[in-house]
Design brief:
Structural class: mainly alpha
Radius of gyration: 24 Å
Oligomer: single chain
Largest sheet: none
Number of helices: 3
Number of strands: 0
Length: about 60
Amino acid sequence: MSIIVLLIPITLVMGAIGLGAFFWAMKANQFDDLEGDARRILQAEDRPRPPRHRSDREVAR
């Protein structure tokens, strides 16, 4: 029974932190352009990827 006295306040504090983070994200306009992000991930990249550098182990082989 004594563990409930500890867990309930911890749960309420964690919930308040999560709710505060959500309202901060809303105020900071983090959720404004959801459609743009969904389309941007499907577009081809304009720039080619840089060449992968070979590590010292691969060069020594």
